Amino acid sequence: MSGGVDSSVAAGLLLEQGHEVVGATLKLWGGASDSGCCSVADVDDARRVAQTLGIDHHVFNYTEEFERHVVAPFVEAYAAGHSPNPCIECNRHIKFDLLFERARRLGFDVVATGHHAQVSERDGRHFLVRGADDQKDQSYVLGYLAEDQLAMLLLPIGAMNKSEVRAHAERLGLRTWDKPDSQDVCFIEASKGREVFLRQRIQLTPAVIVDRASGEAIGSTQGAELMTVGQRRGVLPDRDGERRFVAKVDLAAGRVEVGRLEDILIDTIELDESSLTFSHDELVDGAEILAQWSAHGVAQSATLRRGACWRLDLDVPARPVAAGQSVVFYRASEPTVVEGAAIVAVP
Amino acid sequence: MSLYYFDHAASAPRRDEVADAMAPWQHGVVGNPSGSHKAARDARRAVEEARDEVASFVGAKPGGVIFTGGGTESCDLAIAGVTGHHRRSHETSQILVSRIEHHAVLDAAEKMARDFDDVRVGYIDVDRDGVVDLDSLMNQLSDDTAIVSVMSANNETGVRQPLDGVSALAKSIIPGGVVTHTDAVAAASWVKLSNLTATTDMISICAHKIGGPVNSGALILRNNVTLEAVIPGGGQERGRRGGTVDVAAVVGLAAAVRLTMKELTEVSDRVLDYQEKLVAALSLIPGCEVTGLEALRVPGTVHVTFDDIASDELLFLLDQEGVCASAAASCSSGASTASHVLAAMGVPHERARGSLRLSMGAETTDADVDAVIGILSGVVHRLRSEA
What we know:
By secondary structure, chain A is α+β, with helices and mostly antiparallel strands. Chain A has helices spanning 5-16, 40-53, 63-79, 86-105, 147-150, 162-171, 193-199, 261-264, and strands at residues 22-27, 56-61, 111-112, 117-122, 125-130, 153-154, 207-211, 217-221, 245-250, 255-259, 266-270, 277-278, 287-292, 300-306, 310-318, 326-331, 338-343. Chain A folds into three domains: 5-114 and 156-171, Rossmann fold, CATH 3.40.50; 203-263, SH3 type barrels; 266-343, Elongation Factor Tu (Ef-tu), domain 3 (Beta Barrel), CATH 2.40.30. Chain A has eight helices and 17 strands. In chain A, a hairpin with a 2-residue loop joins strand 4 and strand 5 (125-130). The radius of gyration of chain A is 21 Å and the shape is globular. In chain A, 44% of the residues are buried. Chain B has two domains: 4-12 and 263-386, Alpha-Beta Complex (Aspartate Aminotransferase, domain 1), CATH 3.90.1150.10; 16-258, Aspartate Aminotransferase, domain 2, CATH 3.40.640. In chain B, 42% of the residues lie in helices and 14% in strands. Chain B contains 13 helices and twelve strands. Chain B has a seven-stranded mixed sheet, with helices on both faces. In chain B, strand 6, helix 7 and strand 7 form a beta-alpha-beta unit. Chain B starts with a strand and ends with a helix. Chains A and B meet through helix 2, strand 2 and helix 4 of A and helix 10 and helix 13 of B.
């Protein structure tokens, strides 16, 4: 229970379904936060919701594990010029690993969360399916879950849209019913941003911004780590007024390559083999899938290839994808079903 | 389900005698003790009777008793009040505190240093059993030391501190002597404060750890200590703590003090047996280590660490079995957190994560102790077999 409306309602619905429910809030981040799920105010909200529902509530301290498994790798990845997704790492290493282990030890049958996604059981196997609310679907950040985790997971609000969730919260008299959705990385203060956070921890690298087509320097940056491959953030339009996107960040050379969309498109994404996770059966070389590489991105048709390394061949060229991002695979014939995930390899 | 209350160190059960003593002051006309009419005089009499009892509790004069809103406020007033006064006549001021003080003391000291460039905090080390190292104190005492604050017994471990040694150094090393303060909140139920704190200038106590109401405490000045009010208010408590004195709260504190003085020897002797029994039983659990085993401890507290179990999980399962206990260190969200006390003692971090404090009081029975031993052994076994 993060103190948000989704997990509040999830707890309430489980109780109505007759389950014996205990609320748990994970204290993950000990530092300053204004956007996430770890402030004292958020824990207070979760506790008050539990009281309103009449269930026990416990706060579990995972701040050290969070620092070790999420924050430190996040910083290291940026220092190496990659763009990690900390929410995915938190789900992989904290919520669906340490918390699941703890739940088993404490005698619980299942863990429920307020994610907008669904678990579907077919022939004794469990599949992760997109949430019913297209705008809120969170299956992407759960993409690494496999059978043993899915079998122990309940997602009570996954079949609802957000307005239904809020209506339930209001019906249940939960104080979180109109609480705004959290959007940002929980350990980075929205008012200060990623740059301030990273500058406190690493030395950012100054770099020249070079246009890939002409080879001309068209600008500079004080923090090449903040430039995300595939994005336009931080890139000023050139004299010609055309938009340019980041194509490559080379920290060692102090050089960021940018280009017009047509100059930088890619048609293959290499995957880090050690991160490759399949929900059930391993997908075969040549498997047609739908690939999504950002939380709110659109899934693209692709073919999974197993050559010298695992890669995705894209049917339609796309903007380059930053190393460290996760790609989640959805079933081509049934686009809501997750089949696996992997991290984009370092080129 | 039976409830086994082993968290007296967090808050002790309110005694019936305390509630009875407070009752007349909790409804109807209760005069403002600062007033002059009959109702005010009646209230004032109750306050002054309470003051006499609290003074005798620590062996001080009634004029030295400043009623406060609890132990935290008492400690804050001692630190901020004495340092504030010291700053008026010194270019720099040092506050010396032990590393194992309660946050009531640590945070008050750190706030002074944050607010004023001429104030700094020095930390007195402790040994591996959690006892203040007098050499460390001696090495840090300085001509500009405003106050030395060392608790009477630690709230997490129950380990008692050498207050006489602290006072002897504070008074002899620096010409003119340094003001001493002790947070006696965790010791008040167990040790005769008039002896324990006989050489200490200022003593902080609170009511709810000895069977009284929360939000009631006192800072008691034994000697002629001058301090500045943190809450100047309307000049109450001789200008040292403003705000109308809460008659019910101080009457409750006095009632708790009275009971404690009357029962101290009997309860201490009885609970000491329970402590020995618990220590003996817990020592038999593999991987369980009793904290401060070599040191003198108050009878009510048994603090242990486990090498392979997280406090969160232990407390969860104990709670399910009706055992109210604590990891002794928690943050504002309510999550258990790494203890600065154990860190200062050099307890390895992994072990500190498996902390458990069982704390007892006058109401604890032999049967409670037997029950908690059985439940704890079962819970530990279960966590290990599920791992």
